[in-house]
Amino acid sequence: MSLPKVLTIAGSDSSGGAGIQADLKTFQERDVYGMSALTLIVAMDPANQWNHQIFPIGLDVIQAQINTIVQGIGVQAAKTGMLATVDIIDLVVENVKKFNLQNLVVDPVLVCKGADQPLFPEVAEALRTKLVPLAMVTTPNLFEAAQLAQMPPIETIEQMEEAARKIQAAGAKYVVVKGGKHDLDGKAIDVIFDGETMTHVVSERIQTTYTHGAGCTFSAAICAELAKGATPLEAIQTAKTFITAAIAEGFALNQYVGPTNHGALRRSQ
Ligand code: PXL
């Protein structure tokens, strides 16, 4: 049986919970054939509070990987994760246009949780003006949504809706503003806007700190479902079920990091 083929253009999380490792695990769970173009490698320092270090990969190497996959094989959907520099974003934008990549999911990663510092402001600007407008679906968290919509910090559902409208107006077809980590009356609420309809996806908020890689996993699940032919809204809803199960069974890898559990939904079925 041949499987729908998908590409992640993202960083490597050596600890396995986020980045391409999360994406490929999710692709496997969702029954699509996953391929990867690495943009950078993240390593953590066990002797220094698990501090993250980011090692970008050369543009020529990133391009060669994309050529392998897109020219040499072909994909039904693609996603982007951590891109880290404006040069890498520009390269990805060029490729999305050149190869007319369809079903693009942009996870606008602006911080590496362990590093606790935003990537450079020009990265946010390049994502906002160049890559996010090409997305079929983009999945900012509250911090990223405020950056992309050029708004002050987002604290209410109304502000989530305002951000979703602004990001959608700039070009992204579907915007999912993820409220999951923030306590909005004990619920995890995501706000979705497609240019016409505002949809709220509500679930119980799971009390856990083991959420490392949740954003990567969620956007990878959307990408997989799009490749299988789901509508964007169906894809987002299936991905929400997948990530909610994965977060509910998150676990500690060591004293610093707890990833989500990618096999949780499968095991519950
Ligand atoms: O969760 C954001 C993220 C994305 N991509 C890579 C990461 C991280 C956080 O650690 O390492 C490669």
Quickly list its features.
269 residues; alpha/beta; binds 3-hydroxy-5-(hydroxymethyl)-2-methylisonicotinaldehyde
SSE map:
Layout: E1 5-13, H1 19-29, E2 33-45, E3 51-56, H2 59-71, E4 77-80, H3 86-98, E5 104-106, H4 121-131, E6 137-138, H5 142-149, H6 157-169, E7 174-178, E8 187-193, E9 198-204, H7 214-227, H8 232-248, H9 264-268
Parallel strand pairs: 1-2, 1-4, 4-5, 5-6, 6-7
Antiparallel strand pairs: 2-3, 7-8, 8-9
Helix pairs in contact: 1-7, 2-3, 3-4, 4-5, 5-6, 7-8
Bound molecules: 3-hydroxy-5-(hydroxymethyl)-2-methylisonicotinaldehyde.
Biggest sheet overview: 9 strands, mixed
Percent in strands: 15-25%
Mean pLDDT: 94
**Strand arrangement across the biggest beta sheet:** 3-2-1-4-5-6-7-8-9
Structural class: alpha/beta
Q: SSE string, helix = H, strand = E?
A: EHEEHEHEHEHHEEEHHH
Q: What is the overall shape? A: globular
Q: Share of helix among residues?
A: 25-40%
Task: Tell me the total number of β-strands.
Answer: 9
Describe it.
This protein is α/β, with parallel strands linked by helices and 269 residues long. Helix content is 39%, strand content 21%. The protein has 9 helices and 9 strands. A 9-stranded mixed β-sheet has the order 3-2-1-4-5-6-7-8-9, sandwiched between helices. Helix 4 links the parallel strand 5 and strand 6. The longest helix is centred in the C-terminal third of the chain and has 17 residues. The protein is globular, with a radius of gyration of 17 Å. It starts with a strand and ends with a helix.
